[in-house]
Amino acid sequence: MKKRFFALSLALFFPFAACAASENAQDYDRIANAHYRQGDYAGALEGYRKALVIREKALGKDHPYTAATYNNIALVYDNQGKYEEALEGYRKALVIQEKTLGEEPPDTATTYNNIAVVYGYQGKYEEALEGYRKALVIEEKVLGKDHPSTATTYNNIAAVYKNQGRREEALAEYLKAYRIRIRVFGEAHPETQIVRDSMEVTYQKTGNPEPFSAWLSEAMKDTVR
Fold this sequence. Notes:
Layout: H1 16-37, H2 41-58, H3 64-80, H4 83-100, H5 106-121, H6 125-142, H7 148-163, H8 167-185, H9 190-204, H10 212-222
């Protein structure tokens, strides 16, 4: 289940003062990113919080870059296992994104995905499925049904179903992800093989005596192309 940082870049239409402040905030982002990569989550949080203060003052509390910073703070909490703090950050990001960007941009889908991942870690599977489905609607509409991000969300939905013991439903979602990745990456690509391996493990737990390879061949034949 993938969680993503938001990449930030300066917009040309910002006033000079806002641009200067945003550059200072990006300096803190870079410092925070370095701490994060080193596993220094306290240092990462300090950097992102300083960036957040600058952005809220220079750009406003409802700016997309402010939302992105909330997302990155939440992601640090997420990796610390502080799930309630992570959810709080992701929800703040989502409110801003829906207010300023609308409900369909890819960034909004990313935040829904991140929220769903946290719910999955907490064992709140129905809430996780709700988040993934909201992300999927956006991804299919905005990015396309054959986009890698769409495949990732199908894969994540399948993982939730697997954790719930809903193996047939999990296999159906894995197949959707598998077919997309074959078309986009090819059958031998590691990303494709990850889905195939997950699907095989899930299939083996169904107790079906038919070999997995035979089942998969037939399932791919029956899947709408």
